[in-house]
Structures are given as C-alpha cells and as structure tokens.
Here is the input.
Amino acid sequence: MVPADAAAIVGLLDPIIRAGGLTAMAPGTVCDQRAFIAGLPPRATYLLAEDMRGTLLGIQDILPIPGDGDCDEGGEISTFVRLGQHGRGIGRGLSDASFAAARARRHRRLFATIRADNPGALAFYRALGFRIVERRDGPPLATIRATRVLDAIGA
Ligand SMILES: CC(C)(COP(=O)(O)OP(=O)(O)OC[C@H]1O[C@@H](n2cnc3c(N)ncnc32)[C@H](O)[C@@H]1OP(=O)(O)O)[C@@H](O)C(=O)NCCC(=O)NCCS
Here is the structure.
C-alpha cells in the first residue's frame, strides 16, 4: 500500500460507510487516507486485493497494538471488501496474506473490533478462527471484541 492508493481506498470505503450498520468509521478524505498510509507505524501490515484490471476489491490492515518494549501486544485487524463483491473469498484471500505478514512481523495474536449489529463481519471473523472475548455496550455503539492466536505457521 502506498499513498497513491488513497483515492481508490476512499472510493471503496465511502459506500461501505454510507451503507450504514457496517462500520463505526466516519467518511474520510483522500488526504486523510494518504496521511494514514504515510503515518503507518513499523510492523503495520496494509494489503489490497485488485482484479486483473487494477480495480480495488478489498483492503485489510493489521496495526500493532502499542506494547511495552519487546512485549508483543498483538495486532488490530480491519477488513473491507467492495460492496457487491462480498462472499467471493476476497476477505479470506487477504487474510491468508495478512496473517503470513503478521507472523513475519512477530505478532502472536490478532484482535478485531466488530459492530455488534454486523452479523456478516462476526461470521467472517469466526470463519477465520477468531473467538469472542468481550462485548462493549458503548456509547456510542455496542461492539464485540474477538481474538485469535497467530503463533504457528499455517495456523
Ligand atoms: C466482512 C467482509 C470483510 C468479509 O469479506 P468477504 O470477502 O465477503 O468474505 P469471504 O468471501 O472471503 O468469506 C470468508 C469466510 O467468511 C464467511 N463469511 C463472510 N461473510 C459472511 C456472511 N455475511 N455470513 C456468513 N459467513 C460469512 C464465509 O462463509 C467464508 O467462510 P469459509 O472461507 O470458511 O468458506 C465483507 O463482507 C465486508 O467488507 N463487509 C463490509 C465491511 C465490514 O463489515 N467490515 C468489517 C468491519 S469490522
């Protein structure tokens, strides 16, 4: 992912945000996204999936959770697949690649924060091996915290 991808990312995210009920994210500008990419910390993973024509189909990031020195506090994962392209294995494909990258970056655990009223995302993370560890009732939103261990190659 490079700052030049920012416009395509905003074009993918905006309809998902405006659809409602899927993410707590607020609409952002291309400049916001460029700044986000430029400011990614070391050990961050931010991958995209494109079709053969270069149309962006999905994005996934794993951001290191700030820890104490060498202690790995794990990574926070987010996934967005273009509306109209769900259920075709794009999220699974991104996750296979991201998990490999996160292992290489010595993360041992991943966390996801999911809107409690987003059953599709909950089912997706469950299918990836996450288990629910916490429910937070907001405000502003009820969210589910899910986690999975990432310690073995191929796990
Ligand atoms: C959630 C999301 C990322 C899933 O991506 P996707 O490309 O549609 O998912 P895939 O087709 O790769 O499915 C992967 C697995 O999750 C399961 N899954 C995905 N969406 C599901 C749904 N709505 N209901 C049930 N299971 C689902 C699939 O059955 C599949 O299982 P399998 O690999 O064991 O067969 C995508 O639907 C999306 O972007 N949603 C809107 C944004 C969002 O909610 N993001 C999460 C924010 S926390």
About this structure: The radius of gyration is 15 Å. The first strand starts at residue 45 and ends at 50. The domain at 43-149 is CATH 3.40.630.30 (Aminopeptidase).
